[in-house]
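Teaching assistant's notes for section 4

Start the section by putting this record on the projector. Ask students to predict, before seeing the second block, whether Disulfide-bond oxidoreductase YfcG will look compact or extended. Collect guesses on the board.
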Amino acid sequence: MTSLADHPISRRWPAQHPDRIQLYSFPTPNGVKASIMLLEAGLPFEAHRVTLSDSDVKSPEFLALNPNNKIPAIYDPDGPDGKPITLLESGAILLYLAEKSGKLLGETARDRHQITQWLMFQMGGIGPMFGQLGFFYKFAGSKVQDPLPRERYINEAKRLLGVIEGALEGRDWIAGTYSIADIAIAPWLNALEFYGAQDIVGWDQFPRTNAYLARFLERPAVQTGLNTPPREG
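Reveal the predicted structure now:
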């Protein structure tokens, strides 16, 4: 593994604290997963603002770190066996940081599997479906005259919200105790307001999910992490 000083990423986003975990991200629902987890776990890190513009995420420097040209990505100078490691994909980063810190992954093997299943639920369901809902309801896809895409993602968002609502019966957090699964799921729930899609998905019909998001947003690490790195440079 190339040292941070020699890594291409440092040409564009030089580290002031190279002994810390380096976070390359932007405050999107996926991006804030990493910043919130780093703050919740109390791991020292340095955040670098990488916008979603092609000039950033498709730059040679960033592609050398993440060939999939998506945020977030991390460089940990003190990875497994004391050797540096780079990671892409927000779910993988959450698992890694939970293992590194020994936090938010449950107390038992059973806990871990329950938490992991809900993490995968977000990665495979909520993230892609809510993201497409945002595209077809708020962004460029909203100009598509065919109503089928919007209807598809609106209905799927409602279905997924129903799954969450049911899972939260009798519990405050999706897997029982606060975990990386909540850090994965809640930022995407929060995105519905940004998309202007709360009414269209019947947000008020999911009271447990409303309360769940409110609990999440009250956490100090969440409040800081939602703007780490800052949206404006």
